[in-house]
Request: fold
Amino acid sequence: MFNKKLTKILNIEYPIIQGGMTWIAESNLAAAVSNAGGLGIIAAGGAPGDWLREQIQKTRTLTNKPFGVNIMLLSPFAEEVAQVVVEEKVPVVITGAGSPEKYMAMWKARNITVIPVVPSVLLGSRMEKLGADAVVAEGMEAGGHIGELTTMALMPQVVDALNIPVIAAGGIGDGRGVAAVAMLGAAGVQVGTRFLAADECIVSDAYKEKVIKARDTDTMITGRSTGHPVRGLKNKFARNFVKLEKDETMTLEDIEKLGAGSLRAAVEGDVVNGALMAGQVAGMVRKTEPAKDIVESLYNEAKEIIKKISETL
Reply:
């Protein structure tokens, strides 16, 4: 189905990477995905280095399989968490919200696999020139911070432009999505929203219920006025945010403050005033289940679909 290049680079069984969801992707979820044969990810988000170090060490008590760390480069703690992954000998770093150029030499000197998330061919090409081992091409269907291109349009263009493996993200919720991006040239997939409903995911039961009950049109985008658009489920917080973005008396600083702490509030159970980050495939998530079942179903469903298609050609 996929060539084996990515799984060899990452030393994993299935070419499935769990998305780096801030305040959500921590040791329990990361370890569960890695134990299932995928690549679990700890999201450093806006957390300090001490928090990340603790999560890395805890993950190692839960799995002996490879895992990675997602670093949001706009974080005020980016420099210290970049150093922590070196000190803790984390095998894989996935970066977002900026360029990892200033850390690339340090990471590569320690044989750390570096995979930036990119929303365009231009940025993907730049990352390849910097020495990235692969890139995640993420379409706007994804939850959290997004670009402007859809996965269907973005993926083949990035694949054509780059020589390193391209991992697809955004709008992948089941084996059909995995099979589709394989046909577009993906070397693997990154999945976030489906793992919100994993048994091992620490988000509140109320958050999981909102994802499970979501329909196809139940996400919206906030933050366009700040230059950092975010996709999440529709609720009072999201609607109020968009309304205030249109208020000419609001400054950019005022608008940015609206989102402060909102994701963490949702994780802890405030599904009215918290930011329920989720992608458009939330409408396909219908139950909670172990991360192992999610990983295996994504791969096995895709494998069966591609087999049936090949038999009809």
